[in-house]
What we know:
Elements: E1 3-4, H1 8-12, E2 31-39, E3 46-47, E4 56-57, E5 59-65, E6 70-74, H2 75-140, H3 142-154, E7 158-164, H4 167-177, H5 189-194, E8 199-206, H6 217-233, H7 237-241, H8 245-256, H9 258-275, H10 278-282, H11 289-292, H12 295-310
Parallel strand pairs: 1-2
Antiparallel strand pairs: 2-5, 3-4, 5-6, 7-8
Amino acid sequence: MSLEIKTADDLESRPNYREVLDFGESAGRELLDILGAYIFPDTKSVKCGIRNCRTPHRRGYLISTTDGLETNIGNVCGKKHLGAVFTEKTSLYRKKQSHQRNIEQIRAIKMRISSLQSELDSLKSAAECVSRLKILLNRCHPNLVRVLTGRSKLNNPVLGTRIPMTREEAERQYVHMAKENADGKVQTLEAWLAKGWPKKTVVAGQLAGLRFWMSDLHQALRQELLTPTEELQKMSDSDIEQLSPRKLTEYARWSQKLDTSLAKARVIVMDGESFFELQNIQLLNLLGTSLMRSPAGRWSLHCVTSRVRRHGFINDQSSPI
């Protein structure tokens, strides 16, 4: 990593540092390398070390020269007085710093992954359970899954059931719905009721974990969490250092999102567990007679309920995660 420069004293304390250096053609001196960067507070500044510049600045670089000396150069000053050489050197310096930061960040996150391993294993196990149930329900009753997915998109967990209206409610309904017969007379209330007592829909339950049907658990857990963590755990420090700049950047960016990705996977798994609670599964009967009283509906509920009661799918060796 580069030198840490916090104050002007950090510059002046270096044995080869010179406050002013001549970079004119007659001096035969050229910029060799960038040793470190600095950004001083608003109240502090230093003068550029180029003899014919000396502009006060807060942001710049400590550089070495071809004759073994060092000085500081302002960020703007360097571009103005040293041109393409300065731009090339600073660009290379920033790339090296970024490369080293990525390596250190990946090493740090690799150590953290070790401390998270127990939680990741637990999350994977829970995810496998709800994934198998999801596959089973989709196989047994795809129409039900389409209904659940649609409700999830609309964020509509409320389930209703039809019950007979009270006499008072039926009378109000009669006022709006009774029609004239062929003789131009309105049928009586009793005649209207004789055709079938009116019903109303009331809230009978609310599905938990409905968001599970809009979530991609495989992507959130396997692709965004488990695969990267497994890859990093297999790498030695030497392996990390030999990664291409592109892969280093990918892993570094992934590490910055680890907490967010972990939280996302937790929520999806918790939603799945909430949905497949036995009491919640039994609420599916409220979705309607045409959907849940059919042979497919009864069979799908029977299959899923049996699996939920067994807790763990001991005989199922497949792993969709």
